[in-house]
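Structure in, sequence out. Go:
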């Protein structure tokens, strides 16, 4: 009887967690769809921001290109807008397992995650406009006629900027996940060499085949990872200290 009771309690606990997880996923999808619709509505001024100051004209070779760019921009807006909602839903899901202080600290990371994502997009766009694009244009130096299509330009632009936005999240996401107990500095140090390998590959992919430009991209990414380890250690030590103090108060 006791074994059956424990089994039923475990099943109910798992069911409750799955129900709660489904609720959080649904809320995230609702906001994603809403921001996607907003992106579709404001796609023209957003597209104009990216093409107004270009030193060349963009051409369209098929009607499908305009559909691709509209949906891509709308998707980017949806991702940016949904990011704080997603992190909030993750926080709400794990909140019952946190101490009151851990709850307050982890909640404060959510605005920083959003701001760093925007900062990464801005930094990636600056690198693209100030370094990568002028370098690529200088390689031609009038030898050939340049024809730039809408789809290829925006595909290359997003291939550079979006990885920067994601990778700028590494420090704050590491702190956030450490505060939730999902990762720890020991794990980050253990996988450091693999992380370096992945970051160098990413830097090579999103930058032109020029050693200097690849260093401009790869070095900041490696520095971000090292900063993430340091911040994770700080958060982890504070987490252990706060948890110990909380348990001592509970025993009293």
């Amino acid at each position: 009887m006791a074994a059956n009771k424990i089994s039923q309690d475990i099943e109910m606990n798992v069911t409750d967690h799955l129900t709660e997880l489904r609720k959080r996923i649904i809320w995230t999808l609702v906001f994603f769809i809403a921001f996607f619709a907003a992106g579709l509505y404001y796609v023209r001024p957003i597209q104009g921001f990216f093409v107004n100051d270009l030193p060349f004209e963009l051409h369209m070779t098929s009607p499908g290109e305009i559909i691709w760019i509209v949906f891509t921009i709308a998707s980017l807006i949806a991702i940016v807008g949904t990011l704080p909602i997603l992190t909030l839903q993750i926080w709400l899901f794990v909140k019952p397992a946190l101490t009151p202080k851990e709850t307050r600290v982890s909640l404060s990371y959510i605005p920083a995650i959003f701001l760093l994502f925007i900062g990464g997009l801005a930094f990636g766009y600056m690198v693209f406009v100030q370094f990568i694009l002028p370098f690529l244009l200088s390689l031609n130096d009038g030898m050939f006629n340049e024809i730039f299509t809408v789809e290829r330009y925006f595909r290359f632009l997003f291939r550079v900027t979006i990885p920067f936005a994601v990778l700028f999240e590494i420090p704050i996401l590491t702190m956030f996940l450490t505060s939730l107990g999902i990762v720890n500095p020991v794990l980050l140090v253990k996988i450091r060499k693999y992380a370096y390998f992945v970051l160098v590959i990413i830097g090579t992919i999103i930058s032109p085949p020029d050693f200097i430009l690849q260093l401009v991209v790869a070095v900041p990414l490696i520095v971000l990872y090292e900063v993430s380890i340091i911040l994770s250690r700080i958060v982890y030590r504070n987490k252990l200290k706060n948890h110990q103090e909380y348990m001592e108060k509970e025993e009293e």
